[in-house]
Specification:
Helices cover 58% and strands 14% of the residues. Strands 1-2-3 form a 3-stranded antiparallel beta sheet. The radius of gyration is 27 Å and the shape is elongated. The model has no long low-confidence stretch (mean pLDDT 89).
Length: 190
């Protein structure tokens, strides 16, 4: 029975932290969590518990820990000394919380990291004009036509059509190569 009395408010605290940090529920506040879940706990003690749990949830979420990683992480946390470690009940509550919230938290993190509007689709073709409407031969170079489908989540798409001559295509390809090179440099550093 004592285990349930300890983990029920802690489960509520973990869910409240997720509501605030990952699900943008502005009505959930640190003060509300304190008053509803830990009314008898001194404010400084609650703040320490709140910050500790918030930090642990962020660490777990940032690493998107699977079951094995989570268990290893929680085991290491329970072995920490000096009041900074976790109790077995706290570790169990974190484990239950993450098992039930992992998919939703991950989805929230992905949604928060997405740029809007986003590219939903791209189609292209190359046209070569061989004559004008009067039957005259025209020697204009190839033209690349690109259609971008852009949109925000839950809204209809907008379409943008771009036309490039050979010079512009080469400039775009050069810029894309520069971007890829920059990404490769950053990735190699980490």
């Amino acid at each position: 029975m004592a285990d349930v009395e300890v983990t029920k408010p802690l489960s509520g605290l973990l869910n409240g932290i997720a509501q605030m940090v990952y699900y943008n529920k502005r009505e959930i506040t640190e003060e509300l969590l304190k008053n509803e879940l830990y009314p008898e706990m001194p404010l400084e003690e609650f703040k320490a518990l709140y910050e500790k749990m918030k930090g642990l949830v962020k660490s777990i979420a940032t690493a998107d820990m699977d079951h094995a990683q989570l268990e290893a992480f929680l085991t290491a946390q329970t072995k920490r000394q000096g009041g900074i470690g976790l109790s077995a009940e706290q570790a169990a509550a974190l484990s239950r919380f993450w098992k039930s919230q992992r998919v939703r938290v991950r989805g929230s993190l992905l949604a928060q990291s997405r740029w809007e509007p986003s590219l939903r689709g791209l189609s292209w073709r190359v046209d070569l004009q061989t004559g004008d409407s009067y039957g005259n031969t025209v020697h204009r170079g190839p033209v690349a036509l690109m259609e971008l489908e852009l949109g925000r989540d839950g809204q209809d798409s907008d379409f943008v059509c771009l036309e490039f001559d050979e010079t512009k295509v080469n400039q775009v390809l050069k810029k894309m190569a520069d971007i890829q090179e920059s990404i490769d440099r950053i990735v190699c550093r980490t």
